[in-house]
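Example record used in the benchmark description.
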Amino acid sequence: MAVQQLPGYKPLCYIKETLYLYRKGFIYRLVKNQLEKVIQVYPGTTKESLRVLARLFRTEPKYAVPISESQMLLIGHRTIKVVDVEKQVVGDISSSREGFSDPLNICVGREKWGALWGDYGPNAEHDSINIYGLTKDSKVETVYSFKNGQVRHIHNIIPKLSGGYYIFTGDKENGAGIYKANAAFDQVEPVKIGQQQYRAVVGFDTPKGLLYATDAVNEKNYVYLLDGKGEPQSVCALNGSCIYGTEFQGKYYFSTTVEPDENNRGVTSWISSKRGEGILSDEVYLIEIDDEMNFKTIEKFKKDTLPMKLMQYGAIQFPKGITDELWCYPVAVKKYDGVALRLM
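Model output (structure tokens):
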């Protein structure tokens, strides 16, 4: 279990191997096991006075991504902010498109773009979906657009070892799956689409191929390896869908999710305790996979009794960036909800 705990703090990202965390409107950093307040990023609100209110109103930022030796992108409340932790300056750089929510992930880019992300949200009208890039001079531009009805939204963008990117799209339509793009995004084509075994949020391009975990709420989930020689090969079965993961010291970590049946709609869905058919238990698993594709479960957390849709899914989130410590953030689980945990 954890070797260090910080109750009430959400780990966001590492900048120059220093961990930055969020608590009640402020960014902190952890230096020699001491927490230092850095800058206020959100106004104070009573909605963060209690953990249960913070969960209900989604007051915390979703995540942060380091983009330089002093800056992070902070994502939450349908706005992307840039936070300079050295100059102690914060500013808005982009808002979510009308009808969409925060991007599910932001990819640290290469060459022309410092960061890349795509539209994410219900997209009931099947509008065209954009991928955006943050230029070196901090301008946001559209780098590619999927046509109307082609995909519902973007789950993630994964850098390829050979150059270019993989694009993960969702959710259940024929366009859901894995696409690939060259570095300039002027060539985008499907790799594997149209089945739930290609529906992913978390993935890593490894020397053995694309390692990814599926995100199917109503079908069984697996970690797959796509080596370019045919269909993806199962590495291990999962007890639930996977939305979060991280890479640490040459190993890959995947967190399963406890979430409700996505076919359950309407008011009662907000308080329903019915899990999706692909969510096999009320436990959140943390799976470790090494570079030889050996796997093991290293932690389990029990989902708490609060309703999944109203009060957040059971999951384990991870700060982004490079470090020699593995921190995580369990959400909606017993005992460790809202506690920053250092596991290694």
